[in-house]
TrEMBL record:
Protein name: FAD-binding PCMH-type domain-containing protein
Organism: Azospirillum thiophilum
Membership in a protein family: Belongs to the FAD-binding oxidoreductase/transferase type 4 family.
Taxonomic lineage: Bacteria, Pseudomonadati, Pseudomonadota, Alphaproteobacteria, Rhodospirillales
PROSITE patterns listed in its UniProt record: FAD_PCMH (PS51387)
InterPro entries hit by this protein: FAD-bd_oxidored_4_C, FAD-bd_PCMH, FAD-bd_PCMH-like_sf, FAD-bd_PCMH_sub1, FAD-bd_PCMH_sub2, FAD-linked_Oxase-like_C, FAD-oxidored/transferase_4, Oxid_FAD_bind_N
Cofactor (UniProt): FAD
Keywords in alphabetical order: FAD, Flavoprotein
Keyword Membrane: no
A Pfam family this chain is assigned to: FAD-oxidase_C
Domain FAD-binding PCMH-type: 37-218
């Protein structure tokens, strides 16, 4: 079927104003926010509800039109960007933004996929509960996207990634069937756990249109600290002490290299260096508890005092107000903005066993230098779960040398991935595979795993129309 006919039928489903085709209108949906991935499309379709999503998917299944689902377009691996063929429809889910139900007794809420993460957090807070997922992009990323990528964020240490926060899903399958799996049950042992096939699948097996999510008691006591550390080994020692003393109250443990902190201070207005003591590494730690009136700051200070005394901590600051804690968190949440302003970003989403983090950073940094001596290396990540984002920054002048950048970026990433896998780690912990990790996935996954994933893809999507060219399966059919 001709592209014009597909567009005409899509307009009949969602309304003429909800199908964008003019280049000026579609441009924001055809490139990722970092500008690394760009594509073209027949048009951008904005359905209003799950029934319209299902009708658009049936249209695509009937006509063999590739379909690329998109949430807030905040990803970093190109998973929501179409290819250059111009044959795809981009399905934007932002109009599916209703909070359908909040159940504070059952500690759950049901929301549509286009709700922003911040809106979900607010709905939980209004009910006196907590939805713990927290990301720097929470004001714009959408819940469907966080499910599709199995997002992690800064609270994984205590609450787990998105996979651990989903109770049930509503999904449009590749033939347009609407599967209603919106169950709020904590226990359901009736056959295969189908929801887990769609969490982290990046829209390649179906399109999440709604989700039932777990809620938790709201923290009523908290304390936040910022530490200066001489080494990653010291950071692991301090983290181990925190967990040994405060247990699951340790909600967050975020590591930043001095180079990363300096980039934030240089490029993000309103950020201030918390400690005067220079140190190669900084640790942002937060402890919380649902009981009110606990002196968590005092408990935190007692643990830190041991480290200050034995020298594992060079300096420390415990926030004395919510405003001071927010200022510390601004440093962590501004990393992506700062890196984008620092040069050409080649980011990574590796994870290794926690005890091997120091080895990984040393070896991977040396591997990057061997590929590009002009690369600046920054590190930030979640030290408690081993997910360290090692970021190579190339100077902007590299764009004008006449040599293509992509081979250098691929060589850097291959070197970093190789080190992570050699240390028993993974090439992707929370960002997904998308376009950027697709080739690496085939290299570092075993043939048995790849065959299983390919088989699942063919079973669900035999025509290969669902987000083609991402994760597994052929490119645009």
């Amino acid at each position: 079927m001709a592209g014009g006919d597909v567009i005409g039928r899509a307009r009949a489903i969602v309304g003429p104003a909800q199908v964008l085709c003019e280049p000026a209108d579609t441009a924001p949906f055809l490139a990722d926010w970092r500008g690394r991935y760009r594509g073209t499309a027949l048009g951008v379709v904005h359905p209003a509800d799950a029934a319209q999503v299902a009708a658009v998917v049936r249209l695509c299944a009937e006509t063999g039109t590739p379909l690329v689902p998109q949430g807030g377009n905040t990803g970093v691996v190109g998973g929501a960007i179409p290819d250059a063929s111009g044959r795809s429809l981009v399905l934007c889910l932002s109009r599916l933004n209703r909070v359908r139900e909040v159940d504070p007794v059952g500690d759950s809420l049901t929301v549509e996929a286009g709700c922003t993460l911040a809106a979900v957090q607010a709905a939980a807070e209004a009910a006196g509960r907590l939805f713990p997922m927290s990301l720097g992009s929470e004001g714009s990323c959408q819940i469907g996207g966080t499910i599709a990528t199995n997002a992690g964020g800064t609270a994984v240490l205590r609450y787990g990634p998105m996979r651990d926060l989903v109770l049930g899903l509503e999904v449009v399958l590749p033939d347009g069937t609407l599967w209603d799996g919106l169950r709020a049950l904590r226990k359901d042992n009736t056959g295969y756990a189908l929801k887990h096939l769609f969490i982290g699948a990046e829209g390649t097996l179906g399109i999440v249109t709604a989700a039932t999510l777990k809620l938790f008691p709201r923290p009523r006591s908290s304390a936040t600290a910022f530490l200066a550390l001489a080494s990653l080994e010291a950071a692991l020692e301090v983290f181990s002490r925190l967990r040994g003393t405060l247990g699951d109250r340790v909600t967050t443990a975020e590591i930043l290299s001095e180079a990363q902190l300096a980039a934030v201070l240089a490029h993000v207005p309103g950020t201030v260096r918390p400690l005067a003591t220079p140190a190669p590494w900084c640790l942002l730690a937060e402890v919380t508890d649902p009981m009110a009136g606990l002196d968590l700051a005092g408990a935190l200070e007692a643990v830190l005092a041991e480290g200050l005394e034995d020298g594992s901590i060079a300096d420390a600051l415990v926030a004395r107000s919510e405003a001071q804690a927010a200022a510390l968190w601004k440093l962590r949440h501004s990393v992506s903005e700062a890196n984008r302003k620092s040069g050409i970003v080649i980011g990574h989403d590796t994870a290794v066993p926690t005890a091997r983090i120091p080895d990984f950073v040393v070896r991977a940094t040396a591997a990057i230098a061997a590929v590009r001596a002009d690369a600046r290396v920054m590190a930030v990540g979640h030290i408690g779960d081993g997910n360290i984002h090692l970021v190579a920054i190339l100077p902007e002048s590299a764009r004008t040398t006449g040599k293509p950048l992509e081979p250098a970026a691929q060589a850097i990433s291959a070197a970093v991935h190789r080190v992570a896998v050699e240390l028993g780690g993974t090439i992707s912990a929370e960002h997904g595979i998308g376009q950027s990790g697709r080739d690496a996935l085939a290299v570092f996954k075993g043939p048995a795993e790849m065959a299983l994933m390919d088989g699942i893809k063919r079973l669900f999507d035999p025509r290969g129309i669902m987000n083609p060219g991402k994760v597994v399966g052929p490119a645009t059919p």
